[in-house]
From TrEMBL, chain A:
Presence of keyword Nuclease: no
GO cellular component, as recorded: cytosol; nucleus; proteasome regulatory particle, lid subcomplex
Family membership noted in the UniProt record: Belongs to the proteasome subunit S14 family.
Domain of life, per lineage: Eukaryota
Gene3D superfamilies: 1.25.40.990
Keywords: Proteasome
InterPro entries per the UniProt record, alphabetical: 26S_Psome_Rpn12, CSN8_PSD8_EIF3K, PCI_dom
Protein name: Regulatory particle non-ATPase
Automatic annotation (TrEMBL), chain B:
Start-end of Acidic residues biased regions: 490-505
PANTHER family for the chain: 26S PROTEASOME NON-ATPASE REGULATORY SUBUNIT 3, 26S PROTEASOME NON-ATPASE REGULATORY SUBUNIT 3/COP9 SIGNALOSOME COMPLEX SUBUNIT 3
Family membership: Belongs to the proteasome subunit S3 family.
Keywords from the named record: Proteasome
SMART domains listed in its UniProt record: PAM (SM00753), PINT (SM00088)
UniProt keyword Metal-binding present: no
Skewed-composition ranges (Basic and acidic residues): 475-489
GO molecular function terms listed in the Swiss-Prot or TrEMBL record: enzyme regulator activity
Organism whose genome encodes this protein: Didymosphaeria variabile
Domain PCI residue range list: 251-431
Gene Ontology biological-process annotations: regulation of protein catabolic process; ubiquitin-dependent protein catabolic process
UniProt protein name: 26S proteasome non-ATPase regulatory subunit
GO cellular component: proteasome regulatory particle, lid subcomplex
UniProt-annotated stretches for the region Disordered: 1-20, 475-505
Length: 272, 505
């Protein structure tokens, strides 16, 4: 009974996904989850039949994809966590076939990346690496997982032009991945801005445009104003910070030295 | 004919093996006396001494030895004895032979009403665990260990604490060996987590430091074996590792902690933990594996921090061979040579996977590039971006510009870029001795020395209630002191044997 209902609901969900009417999907999803609860399959147990497990996995995966479409990271994270016990099941209980595990995981990695949560990113990556070694296949073949890994590498070493190229529409492995592009470009723009401040004394506006991947010179000027840079004669002048050495001058910090020496004296006293 | 021939052969060999057997049995039994004393005087030092001898007994353990010990210790009807004998898994006939051989002792036991202490039960249990582990009888061992730790929990005696720590250690070791092995998600290690966590909870409540330390490290190992790093991190955050834990447990704990932190990218923390772990690692050859594993991790973390490990590290005899791929890795990073770095990673991928350092090493790519840039900025006062791109093997000039800009921001080099003319200009470095930096470094070192002194003072041991004893009986006190001195001496001599988890004093 409930099984049939669930299958129907899933069909509807696929339809809404195709017609991109994500708003309706929410109510169907919650009905599907209630149906899952009726089957007692929302959390896998020893006795859950394989058929129900497959239905549950499909529902949750659809939920995850829809949350990404709705740009709702919180609910996506929740779906991802709920899916974990399903992905941990052995092959004979729940066949890998038909599973979107790598796609969902890749999306989650990308989410972590766009949040700047590098620790979480690497922690998950380590888990994946171990699991992949266990299954006897490398992570290298998985395009969904490789995409965020490549992005992270480029981000860390600073090849921002690579990131820019990767995030451009057709390079992403699927539509959902491209949704993160805006966030990522925002991130790299900020990074580039902070690097440029330190690296260049000044730069022509036209060059800054290509450097920051901005559309027009007007937006460069706006961006410069936001960052507090000086625009003069068609060039951007970055604020020079001076006196890094001065702040470290020994004479300025003589009280610190005195304090330290007194500290040593006190310690020596207790030892002797 | 054949029978008599066999008889001849055994007659020649028997005295020899029997001697060893008898000696082993008496050694084990002398340990029982130590355990009894530990209970009577409520002093764990005696228990630790009994435990320390396990590593030397280990090589001489056989089913016959164990059965003999059991037969001469327990009366025939004792249920514990039955359980233990069953676990040894000896044939009934051989068993009978053993019993016959020690008829006198068995007879004497019948007349005495004294029951052996539970400590003795558990001690034999641990010997059995060791024996089964060496026989690679993991199924049997896992089953027996489960019974053993359950019994320890039931008994709930404070004098059992150090023994319990050891029992849990083997309990977890057996389960690791069962199929499917970790990191499979169906592995047996996942099922024992509940038991270990329960053990940890009661250990904390009972202020049982030995078990607490041992079970915490076991749990961390357990989580890391299935790559559940988040759980391991939460465990560390929610528990407190006992400060006075045995040295070897501290070393283990620090190693696991270093591993977690390295994965989470907090390299400074990881470095600190791993340095302590390698320093606290036992210096004898028995624990070489641990030393190697922690050293490998330490090298990778140092590289990730942008440091280059010392050359002499790699020429230590017990590290030289296993560190070979790491040595080549360090060379590539040091030279900032990207192509050769990638080649080494590819060639030694298997070794790195086995050591669990592969993902960490993949992160080194950016460090190689950074070092490359640093080398270039040191040797040229002005270099075109195109040359940088060629020398570092980067994909495009644009990438090179961004990478250099990032290196400048991160403080790797002191330079500026001229975008229109496309070159990098190195800034003149100021005189560092005019700043307070040397002073800060000096301060840092002095602080380290002072902390070391404080820790030494704290680590000194003062025997409990010594002064009271002296008041009561000066003679007895002197004797105790002499014994203590002898023990210290023995402790030094026994250094090779101290493969167990407990160091002497």
């Amino acid at each position: 009974m409930a099984e049939r209902e669930l299958a129907d609901l899933l069909k509807q969900l696929h339809k809404t996904l195709q017609s991109k009417q994500y708003q309706q999907a929410g109510s169907i999803l919650s009905r599907a989850k209630i149906a899952l609860l009726g089957l007692n399959a929302l959390i896998p147990t020893e006795s859950t039949p394989s058929k129900h497990l497959q239905l549950a996995r499909e529902t949750l995966e659809l939920g995850a994809v829809i949350s990404i479409r709705l740009q709702d990271p919180v609910s996506f994270t929740r779906y991802f966590q709920q899916l974990q016990p399903f992905y941990a099941l052995p092959e004979d209980k729940l066949p890998r076939k038909g599973s979107n595990a790598s796609k969902i995981t890749g999306l989650y990695l990308l989410l972590l990346l766009s949040d700047g949560d590098y620790a979480g990113f690497h922690t998950l990556l380590e888990t994946l690496e171990v699991a992949a070694a266990q299954a006897g296949r490398g992570l290298e073949d998985d395009q969904f997982i490789q995409y965020p890994i490549r992005l992270e590498q480029a981000l860390m070493e600073g090849s921002y032009d690579q990131v820019w190229r990767q995030t451009k529409g057709s390079n992403a492995p699927s539509e959902e991945f491209a949704l993160f592009s805006d966030v990522l470009i925002g991130t790299i723009r900020k990074e580039i801005a902070s690097c440029s401040e330190k690296a260049y004394p000044s730069i022509p506006i036209s060059d800054a445009k290509s450097l920051l991947f901005l559309e027009s010179e007007g937006s460069v000027v706006n961006f410069a104003k936001e960052s507090g840079w000086v625009v003069k004669d068609g060039r951007i002048y970055f604020p020079q910070e001076d006196g890094e050495f001065a702040s470290k001058d020994i004479l300025v910090t003589s009280d610190q030295v005195i304090e330290n020496t007194l500290g040593y004296a006190r310690e020596l006293e207790t030892i002797v | 004919m054949a029978e008599s021939m066999e008889g001849v052969v055994t007659e020649v060999e028997q005295p020899n093996t029997e001697n060893v057997e008898e000696k082993t049995v008496s050694e084990i039994r002398s340990n029982f006396a130590l355990l009894e004393r530990a209970v009577a005087q409520f002093d764990t030092r005696f228990t630790l001494r009994a435990l320390r001898s396990i590593s030397s007994l280990r090589k001489k353990l056989t089913d016959r030895v164990l059965c003999t010990v059991i037969v001469v210790t327990y009366s025939a009807k004792n249920p514990t004895a039955r359980l233990l004998i069953q676990a040894v898994g000896m044939e009934a006939e051989d068993l009978k032979a053993v019993a016959d051989q020690h008829k006198d002792a068995v007879q004497a036991l019948k007349n005495s009403t004294k029951e052996p202490l539970p400590e003795v039960d558990v001690y034999i249990g641990i010997l059995l665990q060791v024996y089964l582990y060496d026989q690679q009888d993991y199924e049997e061992g896992a089953e027996f260990s489960t019974q053993l730790v359950d019994r320890i929990r039931e008994l709930n005696r404070r004098t059992l604490d150090s023994l319990a720590a050891k029992a849990y250690f083997y309990f977890s070791l057996f389960h690791e060996e069962l199929d499917p092995k970790p990191p499979s998600k169906q592995s047996q290690v996942i099922t024992i987590r509940g038991k270990l966590l329960a053990a940890l909870r009661s250990a904390v409540l009972r202020k049982d430091l030995d078990t607490q330390a041992s079970v915490t490290t076991l749990l961390l190992r357990n989580y890391l074996s299935t790559a559940d790093i988040t759980q391991a991190d939460l465990l560390v955050a929610q528990t407190q590792f006992p400060e006075n834990a045995p040295n070897n447990q501290v070393a283990r704990y620090l190693y696991y902690l270093g591993r977690i932190r390295a994965i989470q990218l907090s390299y400074t923390d990881a470095h600190e933990h791993l340095i302590s772990a390698t320093r606290k690692a036992p210096s004898n050859s028995v624990a070489a594996g641990f030393y190697q594993a922690s050293m490998k991790l330490l090298i990778v973390v140092e590289l990730l921090m942008g440091d280059i490990p010392e050359r002499e590290l790699f020429s230590q005899p017990r590290l030289e061979r296993t560190l070979e791929p790491y040595f080549r890795l360090v060379q590539a990073v040091r030279a900032g040579d990207l192509p050769s770095f990638l080649k080494i990673v590819q060639n030694s991928a298997k070794a790195f996977h086995r050591d669990g350092t592969y993902t960490l090493i993949l992160r080194l790519r950016q460090n190689v590039i950074k070092t490359g840039i640093r080398v270039l900025s040191l040797s040229y006062s002005r270099i075109s971006l195109r040359d940088i791109c060629l020398r570092l093997g980067l994909e495009s000039e644009e990438s090179a510009e961004y990478i250099v800009a990032k290196a400048i921001r991160d403080g790797v080099i002191e330079a500026s870029i001229d975008h229109e003319k496309g070159f990098m200009q190195t800034k003149q470095a100021g005189d560092i001795y005019a700043t307070r930096e040397p002073g800060e470094a000096f301060h840092e070192r002095i602080r380290a020395c002072l902390t070391l002194h404080d820790e030494c003072v704290k680590a000194m041991r003062y025997p409990m209630n010594q002064h009271r004893l002296e008041l009561k009986n000066a003679q007895e006190a002197r004797e105790r002191e002499r014994e203590l001195a002898k023990e210290i001496q023995e402790g030094d001599l026994d250094d090779d044997d101290a493969a167990g988890d407990f160091d002497g004093l």
